[in-house]
């Protein structure tokens, strides 16, 4: 750096970051507070201190089963959406196929339509074609919903990539698959990582498609929470959320320890 | 929809003259293979089911074709008001998310990897809580006697019964909180790839910190901001749980209206017509926006 | 060139193979070995309701008939939307509704008619509970009375529906959206009190309009709870069973039947059309109508029985609609007329309350 960044800018930046974090986290602090409440109903400030809602969740087959279903689903959806989305984004970026613009519209369209219409349509089509819905139906449904996120974030990263790298590789005799694997894909990584993260989250938090495609054996965590909240809301849902926050932090730190997440965020 | 045309001015790489046609054909075959799974998935699992739903929008009570569902919506100031509120709030949410998200991503890109990881974790945490529970957090903070109204009352700015709940402000606050990660991560992915030497060069040549930010970083970060804005805008247009819980039933938005028509009054034809209108509305809003950013960037 | 594409295909399909293998793994884990038993799929309403539903009906029934009863948690509106979309291959055998959805379901052929003599408990039911059978609907298995909920620590006890407009409750009234069946019934009653009827809702809308400036409008039960617990609500037209739920949660809420009359939400159990297990499904519906089950509902959640033979102890009897005289005082708005006017009423309501 040539000139130091002015102190006033540094202070302003620091304040900005702190205020943003307060804004983002304040409601979560409230949720964590509610989760240790002793009383039956959701209220803040919490009445007393008790971990009864945590033990209630961790011994509840319904919550654990739903969490397991959601996790399986989100992992499968993330895998599929990332693989399919990577191929789509690379194609769209290269613009070699005729009708690329149309194709782009096709891949991003699930983002714009309200999922409720998609959910009803998919249920109708599936019932008429295959009969009762199943895990596969929900898997496909969530993959469709998650796909645009992967395409979108990967495209944005590719737009900033160096187009001559692939050409250079070609000149030096790299085959198509080598170029794809060693030149193009590494360039996509930050976008794919962000897209995969969104895909996982979308699937894990999605409630509308899951609501319509549910069966007795197929209840996801958001649906389980919704079921609990609609009739008799109690602090257990706050405890679930707090646990999910904790697990997320843990998971990210473990992945970072094992794989080094900085690689994916581009450091 | 030309959603991809803004992603830069990258053309087909120059190729040596020898064996051109084979290479071009090979390229097309490669790209067709790469995109085939996606094309099949979208057509079979999205266009087909959605198409049959959208066709309902022109189906009359006795089966014939009709435009009555559209005229019912477009001829009614109540529904037009809902559309206006939806677009207005979504644009506001997008702008605020971009104004917070861009500098935040810039800061994230410039701190050490450990701090960056923690910042990312903190920003995405709202996504990991159930929407209803998270919204409850806001209800406590914004409701009558909640932290923010209470502080404002103590400062003598509002009266005691003041509440931010069931206002458009509450919708905007709640939506920005949960959509911010989409913006920040989209921008971060791009900002991380900007060559630091460009900034250094600008500073060497005497540009101030803010000027460098404005003339070097911001234009280069544009694809990320555009990508993030598209995500944030479309997500806020099509979400209904947060708006209905924070804004309440008295501040309806289009997606909520569609949900009601689809499940509560079972008017699927009307729900389909509203979806078509929403689709067209979003497209009309995005079109000039895309052209604008495309020109600036191309 | 083709080998290269083939290579790529291998890479891609390796990814797919992995995911398919994972899916197969999960699918094999999901199927239970008890598939040999007969299976019945029903809906329930979640939370405490579903817990009690399991305890009173589902588990005893499973034991008695050695059946595997599977539950999908789905509220009436969602359940009907799901049933309609699944018309080609319905997954429910018995579907419960609480908002008059059985009228639509019967009209669209989604549910099948039941004959009175197919139900062993049929003869003991009050006439209103079996009146829908002639239209192809299922019987009413429970009743949720609608009246006034009030906070006894903060507000004076209301006596009649008209008290909602009393100045002493100003700024502390909670109204419920018409998309909620409790809200719809509450509104129809306010309309009736103000001199309207189902085809003329002007008096009701005009009267609600005067409340809107100072009232909160909610759409769901949890919002109702939050308003009483957190937001200083004093009075709201809502259901008797929910007053009990709030009381159990520690809130000082009591239920009052308005002097002008008590409308009610009628919970029905319906037989889904085009399912193989209809005989068993009818047995399940019949089981829900037994005096023992209905006494359990009243005891646990304060739903009123529809079976004349139901025996309740004194405390419970006072907190539900019990006995021929009390039942005769129930107001039932014609379900067919309500259904015919529902969409128009909901739309007009939305326009009225929109800011």
UniProtKB/TrEMBL annotation, chain A:
PROSITE patterns: ABC_TM1. InterPro entries: MetI-like (IPR000515), MetI-like_sf (IPR035906). The keyword Metal-binding does not apply. The chain crosses the membrane at residues 12-37, 74-92, 101-126, 138-159, 180-204, 236-255. It comes from the Bacteria. GO terms for biological process: transmembrane transport. It is found in: Cell inner membrane; Cell membrane. GO terms for cellular component: plasma membrane. Gene3D superfamilies: MetI-like (1.10.3720.10). It is a multi-pass membrane protein. SUPFAM superfamilies: MetI-like. Keywords: Cell inner membrane, Cell membrane, Membrane, Transmembrane, Transmembrane helix, Transport. This is Putative spermidine/putrescine transport system permease protein. The keyword Secreted does not apply. Its main location: membrane. Belongs to the binding-protein-dependent transport system permease family.
From TrEMBL, chain B:
Coiled coil: none annotated. The chain crosses the membrane at residues 38-58, 78-105, 117-141, 170-194, 215-241, 270-290. InterPro entries: MetI-like, MetI-like_sf. GO terms for cellular component: plasma membrane. It holds the Pfam family BPD_transp_1. GO terms for biological process: transmembrane transport. Keywords: Cell membrane, Membrane, Transmembrane, Transmembrane helix, Transport. It comes from Chelatococcus asaccharovorans. It is found in: Cell membrane. This is Putative spermidine/putrescine transport system permease protein. Belongs to the binding-protein-dependent transport system permease family. CysTW subfamily. It is a multi-pass membrane protein. It comes from the Bacteria.
From TrEMBL, chain C:
Keywords: Periplasm, Signal. Coiled coil: none annotated. The keyword Nucleus does not apply. One of its GO terms (biological process) is thiamine transport. Residues 1-23 form the signal peptide. The keyword Signal applies. Gene3D superfamilies: Periplasmic binding protein-like II. GO terms for molecular function: thiamine binding; thiamine pyrophosphate binding. GO terms for cellular component: outer membrane-bounded periplasmic space. This is Putative spermidine/putrescine transport system substrate-binding protein.
């Amino acid at each position: 750096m040539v000139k130091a960044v002015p102190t006033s800018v540094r202070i302003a930046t620091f304040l900005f970051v702190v205020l943003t974090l307060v804004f983002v986290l304040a409601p979560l602090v409230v949720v964590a507070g509610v989760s240790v409440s002793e009383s039956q109903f959701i209220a803040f400030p919490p009445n007393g201190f008790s971990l009864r809602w945590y033990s209630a969740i961790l011994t509840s087959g319904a919550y654990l089963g739903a969490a397991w279903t959601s996790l399986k689903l989100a992992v499968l959806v993330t895998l599929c959406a990332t693989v399919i989305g990577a191929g789509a984004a690379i194609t769209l970026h290269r613009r070699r196929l005729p009708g690329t613009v149309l194709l782009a519209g096709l891949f991003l369209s699930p983002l714009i339509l309200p999922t409720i219409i998609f959910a009803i349509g998919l249920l109708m089509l599936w019932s008429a074609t295959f009969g009762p819905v199943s895990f596969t139906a929900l898997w496909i449904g969530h993959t469709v919903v998650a796909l645009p996120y992967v395409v979108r974030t990967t495209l944005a990263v590719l737009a900033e990539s160096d187009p001559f790298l692939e050409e250079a590789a070609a000149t030096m005799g790299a085959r198509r698959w080598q170029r794809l694997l060693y030149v193009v894909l590494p360039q996509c990584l930050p976008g794919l990582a962000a897209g995969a993260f969104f895909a996982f989250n979308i699937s894990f938090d999605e409630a509308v498609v899951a609501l319509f495609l549910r069966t007795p054996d197929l209840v996801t965590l958001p649906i389980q929470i919704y079921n609990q909240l609609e009739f008799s809301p109690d602090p257990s849902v706050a405890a679930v959320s707090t646990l999910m926050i904790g697990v997320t932090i843990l998971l990210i730190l473990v992945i970072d320890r094992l794989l080094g997440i900085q690689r994916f965020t581009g450091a | 929809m030309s959603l991809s045309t803004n992603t830069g001015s990258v053309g087909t790489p120059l190729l040596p003259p020898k064996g051109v046609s084979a290479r071009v054909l090979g390229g097309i075959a490669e790209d067709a293979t790469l995109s085939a799974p996606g094309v099949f998935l979208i057509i079979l699992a999205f266009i087909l089911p959605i198409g049959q739903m959208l066709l309902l929008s022109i189906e009359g009570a006795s089966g014939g074709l009709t435009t009555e569902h559209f005229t019912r919506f477009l001829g009614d100031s109540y529904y037009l008001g809902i559309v206006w509120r939806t677009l207005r709030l979504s644009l506001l949410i997008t702008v605020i998310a971009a104004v917070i998200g861009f500098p935040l991503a810039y800061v994230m890109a410039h701190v050490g990897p450990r701090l960056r990881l923690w910042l990312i974790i903190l920003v995405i945490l709202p996504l990991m809580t159930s929407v209803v529970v998270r919204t409850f957090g806001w209800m406590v903070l914004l409701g009558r006697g909640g932290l923010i109204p209470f502080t404002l009352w103590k400062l003598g700015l509002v009266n005691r019964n003041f509440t931010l709940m069931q206002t458009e402000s509450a919708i905007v606050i709640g939506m920005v909180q949960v959509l911010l990660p989409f913006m920040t991560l989209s921008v971060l992915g791009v900002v991380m790839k900007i060559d630091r030497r460009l900034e250094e060069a600008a500073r060497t040549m005497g540009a101030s910190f803010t000027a460098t930010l404005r003339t070097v970083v911001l234009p280069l970060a544009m694809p990320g901001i555009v990508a993030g804005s598209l995500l944030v805008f479309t997500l806020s247009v099509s979400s209904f749980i947060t708006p209905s819980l924070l804004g309440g039933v008295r501040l309806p938005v289009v997606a909520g209206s569609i949900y009601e028509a689809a499940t509560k009054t079972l008017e699927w034809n009307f729900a389909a017509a509203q979806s078509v209108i929403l689709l067209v509305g979003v497209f009309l809003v995005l079109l000039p926006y895309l052209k604008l950013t495309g020109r600036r960037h191309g | 060139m083709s080998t290269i594409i083939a290579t790529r295909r291998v890479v891609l399909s390796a990814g797919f193979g992995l995911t398919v293998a994972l899916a197969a793994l999960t699918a094999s884990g999901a199927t239970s070995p008890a598939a040999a038993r007969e299976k019945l799929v029903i809906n329930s309403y979640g939370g405490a309701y579903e817990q009690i539903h399991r305890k009173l009906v589902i588990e005893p029934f499973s034991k008695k008939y050695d059946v595997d009863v599977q539950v999908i948690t789905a509220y009436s509106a969602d359940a009907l939307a799901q049933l309609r979309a699944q018309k080609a291959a319905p997954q429910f055998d018995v579907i419960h509704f609480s908002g008059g959805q059985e009228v639509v379901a019967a009209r669209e052929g989604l549910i099948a008619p039941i004959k009175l003599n197919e139900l062993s408990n049929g003869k003991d039911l009050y006439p209103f509970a079996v009146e829908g059978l002639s239209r192809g609907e299922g019987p009413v298995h429970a009743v949720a009375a609608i009246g006034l909920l009030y906070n006894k620590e903060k507000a004076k006890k209301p006596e009649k529906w008209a008290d909602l407009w009393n100045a002493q409750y100003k700024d502390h009234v909670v109204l419920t959206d018409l998309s909620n069946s409790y809200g719809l019934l509450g509104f129809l009653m306010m309309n009736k009190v103000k001199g309207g009827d189902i085809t003329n809702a002007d008096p009701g809308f005009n009267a609600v309009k005067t409340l809107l400036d100072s009232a909160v409008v909610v759409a769901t039960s949890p919002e109702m709870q939050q308003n009483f617990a957190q937001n200083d609500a004093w009075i709201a037209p809502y259901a008797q069973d929910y007053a009990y739920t709030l009381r159990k949660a520690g809130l000082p809420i009591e239920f009052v039947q308005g002097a002008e009359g008590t409308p009610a939400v009628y919970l029905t159990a319906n037989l889904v059309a085009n399912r193989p297990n209809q005989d068993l499904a009818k047995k399940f519906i019949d089981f829900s109508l037994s005096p023992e089950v209905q006494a359990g509902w009243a005891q646990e959640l304060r739903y009123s029985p529809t079976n004349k033979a139901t025996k309740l102890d004194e405390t419970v009897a006072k907190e539900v609609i019990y006995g021929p005289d009390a039942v005769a005082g129930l107001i039932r708005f014609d379900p067919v007329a309500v259904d015919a006017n529902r969409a128009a009423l909901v739309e007009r309501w939305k326009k009225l309350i929109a800011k």
